[in-house]
Input
Amino acid sequence: MTNWRVLDIIKTSTEFLEKKGVPDARLDAEILLGNVLKKNRLELYLFFDRPMGREEMDLYREHIRRRGSREPLQHIVGETGFMNLILKTTPAALIPRPETEILVEKTLGLNVKPEARILDIGTGSGCIAIALAQSLEKAKVLGIDVSKEALALAKENAGLNQTQVAFQEIDILKTIPRIEQRFDIVVSNPPYISPDEKDQLQTEVAQFDPALALFDENDGLTFYRRFADILPDLLIPGGHFLFEFGGSPQEKSVLNIFMEGGFHDLEIIQDYNGDPRIITGKYIP
Output
């Protein structure tokens, strides 16, 4: 096996991953091999005849075994891209999704003042808070989470990306941050999956993402009701909020929560698949 070439091992590992039901098996096989050989996918194509060494093969077999068990690719390589960031990924927090990049882009599109105060509720890996802090260098960004492990990861990611973000351990369902001034913007990608939907999730999500970040133990709307209650205490008059939610099944319910809460300029933003994914609005007393 140590005489196998790069081309051979990609073909064999792709077939193995396909049998395990892994989506994009060829792509994952190439990314994992590139991780072992310290080469990007393009460089692999220039080394198809390169023989694999014993230690390389042992490490690659372990990578493929883990991916075959449906462990997320990002956990195996230990990082992922988000906006123009590289973030460390561990089971402590959700793997940042492309849809959440839309929330960041829409926030940046609000033409907020450079020194804006921004709150990220349920910061997880820190992806939203760090991306906003990187683009708005004078902004004061606070990320909060109930999980110590997630906050440790978020702090590490902020350091790796050389951004200034403050973090606090807070259970937003029980209390709110201790602040001297209210925020210009509040953002969140909260838990919105009800427990009875677990069987509908991909194995990578159901078995490897932290349940605390995925599931609302009630109907999936607990956090939005809480947000509607506390936003008047968090936002300045005219302040904006942007919250991700669970698509079409939740659209009307989420919209009604903020309509009944008296919030203004409500808008639903679609994700890359055309599904409703983000609600935005303003707090005007």
Summary: The two ends are 70 Å apart (CA to CA). The chain has a mean pLDDT of 93.
